[in-house]
Specification:
The strands form four sheets. This protein has a 16-stranded antiparallel beta barrel. The protein has a two-stranded antiparallel sheet with strand order 11-12. A two-stranded antiparallel ribbon has the order 17-18. By secondary structure, it is mainly beta. 35% of the residues are buried. The protein starts with a strand and ends with a strand. The radius of gyration is 22 Å and the shape is globular. Helix content is 1%, strand content 53%. The protein is built from one helix and 25 strands. The chain has one helix at residues 320-323; strands at 3-6, 12-20, 23-28, 57-62, 67-74, 82-89, 98-106, 109-115, 141-148, 155-162, 180-181, 184-185, 197-205, 208-223, 228-246, 249-259, 275-277, 285-287, 289-300, 305-316, 328-331, 337-340, 348-359, 364-376, 382-395.
């Protein structure tokens, strides 16, 4: 934030800022912008399958990626510096304001609502106009307590505890999804008692850095056959970092693999695919394997002009029988009934972005971007979408 109020001795500073970020664009080949939970976010996993007649293109103007934020600093410049940060914005789909960040940091410790500790923001991808970013990046927001160490000759480490959020197959774990058991509705929900545990260790010098991250999590569920609470473990491992052999050109990469980590991977978040019934053992659940790959490059032609490109691939395995449970019938522009893939019907996706940004000043930036995405389903093929968009951003 650029505007600051401070005491004479700088022991307390309040800075207020924000960003006004209108975006104008065109979808070509599909109408992802009008898809639920997408909007200006280019969510490749939400691309409608199939592309429906009369809905194979769209034009939009939006300013929903704007936000307000504030930073509070107490005891500034001392070993006991205490910093608080708060950010208000939208979900990029509607204009309702929501709390996007709220946390306090002190001597390496963080407490509050922030990006998950396992997110490697410096390596996930180059800057994009698209607020969503590549489908394979690992990152979400979570209530947490965490610790990040100081730099020890290039080495750093971190560990935290995070409040889990779960997405799993609807139903009652009988090897198939049932909303009733012997004619009676059943509440199979249970409370989750174990926090997610993210951690990482990294080594870096200049533009070259490598990080290894891990995530451990526990799922609780109700075995409706044995009328017993059960649990199982999920995990994720990630290699990420940056490298450069020519100063204006920087590469970044991320490869994550795990079981039951859907709500951490961008294109899998919100899909009930982390755990599903274990068909060969009625009453039991299993975590499903999933993966996200990202590779990008940034070229700083001048201090004001930057070019970026990034590609991503996301995949999930072993969920076919449960991925298709929410497919629905819709009507196209000609009145024909079309079978459409539901939210869970996801097999893999690809994402490509190429853009250019020009800074007029530290406050004003313009950009133009091309996006391509493909979503593949389990039983009805796939569909593509392309988007061309431009941005005028005022940060204050």
């Amino acid at each position: 934030p650029a505007f600051a109020i401070k005491t004479d001795n700088n022991k307390f500073v309040l800075s207020i800022g924000g960003c006004i970020n209108p975006i104008m664009g065109w979808d070509i080949g599909n109408n992802l912008y009008n898809t639920d939970d997408a909007g200006i976010q280019f969510v490749t996993g939400q691309i409608p399958v199939p592309a429906v007649t009369g809905h194979k293109g769209d034009f939009f103007i939006s300013a929903l990626d704007s936000y307000l934020d504030a930073t509070f600093v107490a005891f500034g410049g001392t070993a006991n510096e205490l910093t608080g940060y708060m950010k208000l914005g939208t979900n990029d789909v509607n204009s309702q304001l929501k709390l996007k960040r709220a946390f306090i940091t002190y001597r390496g410790f963080l407490a509050g609502y922030a990006n998950t500790l396992i997110n490697d923001g410096d390596a996930s991808h180059p800057p994009t106009i698209d607020p969503q970013g590549p489908g394979g990046i690992l990152g979400t927001t979570a209530y947490q307590v965490a610790y990040k160490s100081k730099d020890y000759n290039g080495f750093r480490f971190a560990i935290g505890l995070e409040m889990p959020s779960f997405c799993n197959s609807n139903g009652y774990y009988l090897g198939k999804d049932f909303k009733q058991y012997y004619g009676k509705k059943i509440d199979a929900s249970v409370d989750h008692l174990v926090p997610d545990v993210p951690m990482w260790i990294q080594y870096g010098r200049g533009n070259n850095r490598v990080r290894f991250s891990a995530l451990l999590r526990n799922f609780a569920y109700q075995d409706m056959l044995a009328q017993k609470r059960r649990s199982l473990w999920g995990y994720g491992v990630m290699l990420s970092g940056n490298f450069s052999f020519y100063k204006p050109l920087v590469f970044n990469y991320q490869a994550v693999y795990g079981r039951g980590i859907a709500n951490y991977i961008q294109d899998l978040a919100g899909r009930e695919l982390s755990i599903t019934p274990k068909n060969d053992k009625p009453g039991y659940m299993e975590t499903n394997p999933m993966m996200g790959l990202v590779f990008g490059a940034s070229y700083n032609a001048t201090n004001r002009l930057q070019f970026n490109v990034v590609g991503s691939y996301t995949r999930v395995w072993n969920v076919g029988p449960y991925a298709v449970t929410d497919d629905t019938d819709i009507t196209d522009a000609n009145g024909n009934t079309v079978r459409a893939a539901g939210n869970n019907n996801f097999r893999y996706s690809t994402y490509v972005a190429a853009n250019c940004f020009y800074k007029f000043s530290s406050f004003v930036k313009v950009g133009v971007e091309y996006l391509y995405g493909h979503r593949e389903t389990w039983n009805m093929g796939g569909a593509n979408d392309s988007r061309i968009q431009t941005q005028l951003s005022l940060t204050f």
